[in-house]
Amino acid sequence: MMNTPQQVKNPSSSLKSRFITRFLGALTKITAEDPISSSSPTRIFQRYRRIKVASNKSMAYSVRSRRIWSRAMLSRFRSRRSAFSGRRSSVKTTNCTTSPPPALIKVTINEKKTAKGGLDMQTDELRELVPGGEAMDVCNLLDETAHYIKCLTTQVQVMRKIVDFYHLSK
Amino acid sequence: MSSRRSRQSAAGVSRISDDQIIELVSKLRQLLPEIRDRRSDKVSASKVLQETCNYIRSLHREVDDLSERLSQLLATIDADSAEAAIIRSLIM
């Protein structure tokens, strides 16, 4: 019986594996439809855009609807595809349980900063960066941000390895 | 260790306890490369949020940059080939 996603055994390696599979599959499609022999700057730019979208899509699909940010991203992709945004995913709050912080690290909340009180204004910037962030409460925002960062670093790590591989084989 | 005392803020909207937020921000702080290596003193939540935003932006830029390099490097790639298997084994 699982309480939170964090208690799943080895979630990160299976997430990584799913991401790699999807991303490699997407790269296969991209290079098959547009081989690099046609290397005009426009084509290369288009290829770069497709690869970037493929990378973000692959990660969002690998996370599926388990996260608010991934749901937001997936509905973005879907509404881009169809002419109208048909399906609006409602923002569900996650079960916001937290683990105790390490003993040495202390964090203070500087409430004097804003008249609005607390972290509201300080989170504005973050809300723009995390998909779906506008509608989240602070608790979920921070939780989603942590997961989003982990996924981004996985994306970067995998892409780097692929780049290195092809770089070395030249 | 965390008290679940909820407090109505002045706005009357937030019922999330400060302790919960502190724990979450600490968790975030663990992920940030810069702050993590500094002395583990008290760090303000706003600093962590700022660093988090910067970090996310730099990660976005990296994905961008790597996508660009991949677009130039890739001749063809076949997900079913032995090549792809090598890549997988290198990554996992």
UniProtKB/TrEMBL annotation, chain A:
Domain IBH1-like N-terminal residue range list: 13-80
One GO cellular component term: nucleus
Pfam families cross-referenced by the UniProt entry: IBH1_N (PF26576)
Domain of life, source organism: Eukaryota
Subcellular location: Nucleus
Keyword entries, A-Z: Nucleus, Transcription, Transcription regulation
An example molecular function term from Gene Ontology annotations: transcription cis-regulatory region binding
UniProt record, GO biological process: regulation of DNA-templated transcription
Protein name: IBH1-like N-terminal domain-containing protein
Automatic annotation (TrEMBL), chain B:
CDD domains recorded: bHLH_AtPRE_like (cd11442)
PROSITE patterns to which the protein is assigned, alphabetical: BHLH (PS50888)
Alphabetically ordered keywords of this record: Coiled coil, Growth regulation, Nucleus, Transcription, Transcription regulation
UniProt-listed GO biological process terms: regulation of DNA-templated transcription; regulation of growth
Coiled-coil annotated spans: 56-83
InterPro entries xrefs: bHLH_dom (IPR011598), HLH_DNA-bd_sf (IPR036638), PRE (IPR044293)
CC terms in the record's Gene Ontology section: nucleus
Location within or outside the cell: Nucleus
Entry GO MF terms: protein dimerization activity
Domain BHLH: 5-59
PANTHER family linked to this entry: TRANSCRIPTION FACTOR PRE, TRANSCRIPTION FACTOR PRE5
Protein name: Transcription factor PRE5
Source species: Gossypium hirsutum (Upland cotton)
